[in-house]
Amino acid sequence: MRRWRWIAVIALSLVLAGAPPAHADRRVALVVGNSAYRYTPALDNPRNDAADMAAALGRHAFEVIRGIDLDKAAFDRRVGEFVVALKGADAGVFFYAGHGLQVAGRNYLVPIDAKAEEAALLDLEMVRVDTVHAIMERQTETNVLFLDACRDNPLARNLARSMGTRSAEVGRGLAEIRAGVGTLISFSTQPATWRSTAPAATRPTRPPWWSA
User: Fold this and answer.
1) Domain containing 34: what range?
2) Domain for residue 143, yes or no?
3) In angstroms, rounded to a whole number, what is the distance separating the alpha carbons of residues 65 and 149?
């Protein structure tokens, strides 16, 4: 039987918030896996990781909103559904697997139709992590965010080239995030680092917090 460390993390966070999993009234999760990118090579694992996560959370009594291979419009719709579902919930979980990048210390999640050719368009093309994070902390007292988005991202390199002298604003991986009381944030690597997207035979198939 497969076990994951993040299940223990969720349970611990619920206990610390005074809402043990066995007695939590409502738990809501948004699970997104983006693999089929249109302007950069596809990723092997995010779609499958998201499916596994959604199934596991469902078995732990979460209401799961699932999004697979979301373009920007679909991503925004799923986030909107999540916002509505979080109202009155005891705990929220956000899981994202796919490309991500940081610019000037701000983290972005990359929909499958993003081109990342102009820095001025980032807020229109991508989903800001701080937006989802802030919404969750406003809506519920207990939150867990899993960001498996610290990959070597060709789109980030494209963006850096387009920014010229400002290219240093495009950081490696995702930037560190300060969590409020009752919120736990887990990265697939340390902040400001990235995980290779090399062929599956030459790299781990799961992020470090995902154990068999």
Assistant:
1) 25-188
2) yes
3) 19
pLDDT digit string (tens) for the chain, length 212 residues: 344 455 545 654 554 455 555 554 799 999 999 999 999 889 989 999 999 999 988 988 899 999 999 999 999 999 999 999 999 999 999 999 999 888 877 899 999 999 887 777 888 999 999 999 999 999 999 999 999 986 666 666 666 665 554 544 455 567 777 777 888 888 875 444 444 444 444 444 444 434 33
- 208 within 8 A of 191, measured Cβ to Cβ: no
Would 134 be classed as within a structural domain?
yes
The alpha helices in 17-121, defined as continuous H runs, are: 46-59, 72-86
Task: Please list the residues that pair with 170 across neighbouring strands.
Answer: 103
What pTM value is reported for the model? Answer: 0.78
Determine contact, residues 92/179, Cβ cutoff 8 Å.
Answer: no
Sheet containing 127-128: order of strands: 127-128, 106-109, 100-103, 170-171
Say if 208 falls within a structural domain.
no
CATH number, domain of 134, equals: 3.40.50.1460
Q: Three-class SS of residue 17? A: coil
Handedness of CA 129, 130, 132, 136 (dihedral sign): positive
In the chain, what is the greatest distance between 2 CA atoms, to the nearest angstrom? 54
Number of domains in the chain: 1
